[in-house]
Amino acid sequence: MAQAKTFNWYGSEDAVGIPGMKADTTGDVVDSLVAESGLNPGDPVIRGTSAGQVKAVTAATDGPKAIGIVLHVHREPATDSKYYEAGYMVPVLTFGDVYVVAGGDVAAGDKADAAVAEDGSISFTKSAGENTIPGAVFLDAGSKGDIVRLRTQRQFYSGLFRKLKSIGNIWDVAKLTPAVLNYMETDLSISKLVSFAVSMLKIDSSKIMICTMPVKLAEYYNGEAVVYPARQEDADLLNTYFRENTGPVDAAALDLIDSAAQIGFDLSGYTATEPNIQQMGGLMEQDQQAQQNENLDGSHAVEYDVTTEQQDAESQPAA
Predict the structure, then answer these.
(1) Residues 54, 39: Cα–Cα separation, whole Å
(2) Taking CA atoms, which of 27, 127, 167, 266 is between 20 and 30 Å from 272?
(3) What is the pTM of this model?
(4) 124 in Cβ contact with 115 (< 8 Å)
């Protein structure tokens, strides 16, 4: 006989989301990986012992090794303390926005650390600088226990550039372009994107950086999140990294629509998000080391150096 369960309506006093719920579905990357141990939605995970496995961080120092956030899927919880049991194929968000639990006071634009409580529960706090989760940035302000949005973006960009570097000709670049457009919006034509990608192949990865243009996340308007360019912060970013040859640009000269007065918003009290600058060379080196040391996909093989003497001995006919 089926057991009837209490149904609770979603109320206005409830949180905007639940841990591990996608906060934006316009573009994301989700990998299916096996839980090495019990996991909960919203947990940051690191690579497991075997290829294709992941496990939860157990200390703040695991933060720099985090590869993504466990997503929520509708199912019966495995136990009272762990939603997913060991061996379950869990969805891991490596690029996109997700709801998580704040472990302290956080603000939009803060970089994130993982905080592990004595009972093993995991939350996210403002980064102190040493154990930052790569590519993880808060999109909301909140206090301890609040459900806030977190953006993670590292794996997509490093994977994309690694793929581009492995491509041998312009036709392969053209084939990859439609797939890339699933994860980004641009007004550039496909031909221009292909030309841009080909030009990137000639640039050393250590000289390429990725960043997010600073914005101000305002109040909701007609049920939609409102994002405005942070004019001065955008100008500072451009002048620091992209204006070496042309000279600085004044913030007032940027062709940006950033007036919130039209819909009654005052942005003076809002803080701009951080650009979250990362060097592509560093990301690729970390991924390469992970593949080398942890055999991510099971493809790594041990290579042996055969000396000249061994080759000569093997080439001699048997007695």
Answers:
(1) 9
(2) 27
(3) 0.58
(4) yes
